[in-house]
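Worked example (supplementary).
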Amino acid sequence: MKNVFIKNIKGLVQAGEDLPSIVKGEACERISIIENAFLALENGSEVVAYGPMSEWEGIDDWRDLEVIDADGCFVMPAFCDSHTHTVFAKTREEEFVDRIRGLSYEEIALKGGGILNSASKLQLATEDELYDSAKKRIEQMMAVGTGAIEIKSGYGLSVDSELKILRVVKRLKSSMPIAIKSTFLGAHAFPVEFKENHEGYIDLIINEMLPKIAEEGLADYVDVFCERNYFSVDEMTRILIAGKKHGLIPKVHVNQFSSIGGIQAAIDQEALSVDHLEELSDEDVNALKKGNCIATFLPGCSHFLSIPFGDVKRLIKENVPFALASDYNPGSTPCFNLLQIWSLACIKMNLTPQQAFNGLTINGAAAMGLSDSHGKITIGSNSPIILTHEIPSFEYIPYSFGENVIQRVFIKE
Ligand code: NIG
Ligand code: FE
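After joint prediction of all chains, the assembly is encoded as:
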């Protein structure tokens, strides 16, 4: 039973009872910061009181209470990473070197690298090995301020291996102290044996994988990689419809390398989010303007693959809500650190520190259906909370790219 009283906080960020559950347009610029504040937590991270120091009424019971003087430090809600591929068997630095030597990401995939490379390695890994390695990764993510994570399958590409990944995610959900959401991404690539038989693999997804996943309650969302050389718009639509029949909400990979109509089709299927969006056509923007879908950008992927960063500023102008996520995976984004993503979003996408922070917290939580409990600090909320070292300002955090400004993360016990 650990209770904590944090006093003299230089800036208590995004604490309030009337904060929005999603932000868009000009509101993306707004962040609530209480200066010279206090925050009281019970059982690790449950918020029981906060406010300006002048309103602090004292504490009756000092037993089991840790008092922290946060003079010069900021306190803020943990980040919400709404797009990751955290369960994988092996890293792929050999492909990184191939790209340095001149091959493109798409060329590497076409010669059997990429997702298929990860899938063949994952076939050989046991469920326990995958669980242990993913748990270590999540602990590293938590240490740099990630407080909720979505995790996709998609490196299985067979009935057994897709189920193996999702069972690992289910175990992580019940054993880790942070919120985890699970996404079925069987439609990540066509396995070699189905290269000329797309119908055969789609049949496997719809008639074998999905019913088993639903029966075991293994997924919250259904995802498809809609892209040339991967799944067409029609193929994606059929898979999303089948997923919805099993209660899975669509959340998809679209427009990473080309704009082929996937955004409109995903919105037609009531997708919670459309992710990547490095390429955006006028039609895509119009589709997003009309729906309630969250546009999720993955600047770590753009940076690592040297592809466009996506025109998030245009979407802010058009009042489309956006989130930022890591896309943590061994191929296109071997970086899980959302402090880095925050800096990249400011440096490369021209987002202000405030806009990017909203994309990583309030809107990241919304892109995982966690708006009620995550992305802000409210009485009764029990999601992780970040305490920084002494820093000059809120803006300093993304400015000082590469620095770990995090002193401590409070997590429920
Ligand atoms: O989101 N684009 C599709 N899937 C992943 C990368 C997959 C991989 O290269 O292993 C992504 O970038
Ligand atoms: Fe991804």
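Two points are worth noting when inspecting this output. The first strand starts at residue 3 and ends at 13. Residues 83, 85, 253, 327, 329 surround fe (iii) ion (ligand 2) (CB under 6 Å).
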